[in-house]
Give the backbone structure.
Amino acid sequence: MDVSNAMSGGGQRKVRSQIDLKELNCASCVPVIERGLEKIEGVENAKVNYLLSRLYVMFDPERTNESIIEATLEKLGYRLRHKKYEGPVTRLLSRLGRHAAEKGK
């Protein structure tokens, strides 16, 4: 995630953030993400570049933050490229490893 500071016309500090997304499957995801994020108090603008799977969001850091934006993206069903997610295979292997370790005690 890239972050830069900017000043709005009213002199308020704004943060411009770039977030890389995983697996945008179709162009209809774009308005879902943009509208979903623009509902967050403090988010001024959210634009998705579908071809790059990249989100650009401008927000007021006194009213919201990157954690809230990322959590909202995940609630909308999207994954962030900089995070690792545990899938069903990973969970199964983890359980098998714990089970084997417990048996060996």
